[in-house]
Amino acid sequence: MTGGANAMAPIVVVGGGIAGLATALGLHARGVRCVVAESAREIVPLGVGINLLPHGVRVLTELGLADALAEVAIETRAIEYRARDGRLIHSDPRGRHAGLPFPQLSIHRGNLHTVLYRALIERHGEDAIRPGLRLRGVERRGAFVHACFEDRRHGGELRFDTEGLIGADGVMSSVRAALHPGEPPPRGSGIVMYRGLTWAKPMLDGRTMVIAGVHEHKVVLYPVRPPRRDGLQLINWVAEHGERFGGDDAAGDWNRPVDRATVAALFADCRFDFADVPALVRAAEVCLSYPMVDRDPIDAWVDGRIALIGDAAHPMYPIGANGSSQALLDAEAIAECVAADPRDLPAAFAAFQARRLATANAVVLANRARGPEKLLQLADERLAAGPSADGEPILSSEAIDAVTMGYRRTAGFERESLEAMARRPRLWPQARTAAVPRSGT
Ligand SMILES: Cc1cc2nc3c(=O)[nH]c(=O)nc-3n(C[C@H](O)[C@H](O)[C@H](O)COP(=O)(O)OP(=O)(O)OC[C@H]3O[C@@H](n4cnc5c(N)ncnc54)[C@H](O)[C@@H]3O)c2cc1C
């Protein structure tokens, strides 16, 4: 990437987050030149925990990253849905524990990001990503896209033309703003998510995720790293509460710190036999807040030589753990479409949109309707209606299947889809069918 209005450049991927880095790896692996322009001056591991569903793990496995992920992730055994008082509603086996061909992984976002970043620079050199370039404006100019970046490392501006630009610049995407001027800011759900990481004794079997409570007052707990020598394990916790969040500008700021004592007091009722949430909050390494936001689905992610992927295309509530997995599916799809038609990027981008838009938009709406966490609401209503007969489960298996299977089909990680994906030809010669993370216990 060089300065000067007439300099030609390879495909530009704007944003070096999860979607941008995976796209760059996928394009390079298929012989397509690209460069990532990332706004942050330095690439540093950020965020707290994130879950990768089996279809997302498949994409990373295809990129040859299974072993690197295995070092730093937990293979999730099950998700336990629990009532406000901690009573078990349903234990849902995950990934290979459910007999699927790929695992579900719980991981620190910073570790996931580092695995992608290291792979990119080790395979394709330091110049594969340009930190400190913040997109300011993008314009269609005939057969080219003209992009203007603020150079946050050296000062000044960098302008250039490219034949194709992929906007992977997250929930506050500037590329999306250029394609859809006048779109309102992200839409709040009325829920604030307090998020943190705490070294603590392993919870349950050290490989289980717990979601307990109801939509407006809920905790999500899962380990993200194997235990260290002293036996403690890094537990990710998200404590969600219905309240107003100060300022619309809050969306996109993933690093807003919040007082631990305030959050601990808000969740004083969440002391369970498997986890003491207020204690986890008080002992947290980091404690952040973020509003649960999304955007209304749009029917155009592509305009000629410009395309949107990941959160820039379809920001969604982090319900059902689909945000990064859907972003990874986009990354794979756009790399495949471009590699299949590198001389006609508008056609390749249109093919990408045709392949991905309906599914990802459906997940946005399914998450708005609470996705698999509808189970919590159903169970709460059932429990409020009075005691059930001895031995009778809170919810019937039919009611549970209707919610969980429907969501899997919408998001594309039901057994049939995953088994069909596992039969596809391998991109990366060493790609195995699944990552094998070290066991949590
Ligand atoms: C710092 C950070 C921390 C996060 N922490 C968590 C977390 O703890 N848990 C969780 O579930 N999700 C987290 N997320 C969001 C999560 O990564 C995404 O929801 C999901 O993985 C989809 O990824 P994405 O690449 O589309 O978006 P993101 O991962 O958000 O990546 C977008 C990238 O674009 C860059 N960017 C933005 N604007 C511009 C611009 N104008 N020019 C150039 N680059 C730009 C950003 O710096 C970022 O690197 C975090 C995102 C960020 C940026």
Q: How is the largest sheet built, in terms of strand order?
A: 7-6-15-16-17-14-19-18
CATH topology of the domain at 8-74 and 106-184 and 296-369: FAD/NAD(P)-binding domain
Report the CATH C-level class of the domain at 8-74 and 106-184 and 296-369.
Alpha Beta
Share in helix: 25-40%
Q: What number is the mean pLDDT?
A: 90
Give the terminus-to-terminus CA distance: 47 Å
What structural class do helix, strand and pairing data support? alpha/beta
**Percentage of residues in DSSP E strands:** 25-35%
Question: Could you explain the architecture of this structure?
Answer:
This protein is of the alpha/beta class. The chain has a domain at 8-74 and 106-184 and 296-369: FAD/NAD(P)-binding domain, CATH 3.50.50. It contains twelve helices and 21 strands. A hairpin with a 5-residue loop joins strand 6 (78-82) and strand 7. The chain is globular. The N and C termini lie far apart (47 Å). The model is unreliable at 2-8 and 431-441 (pLDDT under 50). Bound molecules: flavin-adenine dinucleotide (FAD). Flavin-adenine dinucleotide binds at residues 14-20, 37-40, 46-48, 50, 109, 134-135, 168-170, 174, 254, 310-312, 318, 323-324, 327.
